[in-house]
Amino acid sequence: xxxxxxxxxxxxxxxxxxxxxxxxxxxxxxxxxxxxxxxxxxxxxxxxxxxxxxxxxxxxxxxxxxxxxxxxxxxxxxxxxxxxxxxxxxxxxxxxxxxxxxxxxxxxxx
Amino acid sequence: xxxxxxxxxxxxxxxxxxxxxxxxxxxxxxxxxxxxxxxxxxxxxxxxxxxxxxxxxxxxxxxxxxxxxxxxxxxxxxxxxxxxxxxxxxxxxxxxxxxxxxxxxxxxxxxxxxxxxxxxx
Lengths: 110, 121
What we know:
The complex is a heterodimer.
Chain A: E1 9-12, E2 18-23, E3 35-39, E4 46-49, E5 63-68, E6 71-76, E7 85-93, E8 98-101, E9 105-109
Parallel strand pairs in A: 1-9
Antiparallel strand pairs in A: 2-6, 3-4, 3-7, 5-6, 7-8, 7-9
Chain B: E1 3-6, E2 10-12, E3 18-25, E4 33-39, E5 45-51, E6 58-60, E7 68-73, E8 78-83, E9 92-101, E10 106-111, E11 115-119
Parallel strand pairs in B: 2-11
Antiparallel strand pairs in B: 1-3, 3-8, 4-5, 4-9, 5-6, 7-8, 9-10, 9-11
């Protein structure tokens, strides 16, 4: 049972904006930076956003992250077919003294 | 370029142990931690623990304490994850990932392609 909760699914048509939420607590999101990973089945997960809102080199600026209190969000603007994947939020948890992933959200491009 | 290359598919019987390797290249091996993450069929990502080749320290997720051991060989730039007392619900793809820090956070910036471990009698 993950301590970070995400909606199981999200969808949109090409060009739309999809937003994924991630709800945590004071021991993780509330006190630690949030990261986001994109995972296509059968491939290695990819770091999408780190430290709440930073994009690694090579990640399109269509992806953006934000955090407020004990919640975080990932927005995908200008949705494209290649964005179909599973998305996970993650953060260090001070109570568990470990890294925790969200429950994951499957994004479908209609 | 940074690469993490993992060992191949493993099949084990319940109660056995498995060791997965992660050979790295393209960066200073002792300057970064290596983490292990798994994904069981139909489930999400699950963090298992970290190892620091520079300090010699390791840290394991509570649910794997006593069953997992993470080691490394600096000479060949490889990390290892050994899981013992295997059960059917340990069937999963196991990933290694490089851990990096910035001013405020900790994240996994490069990942291996995964090793499928199947536990079946």
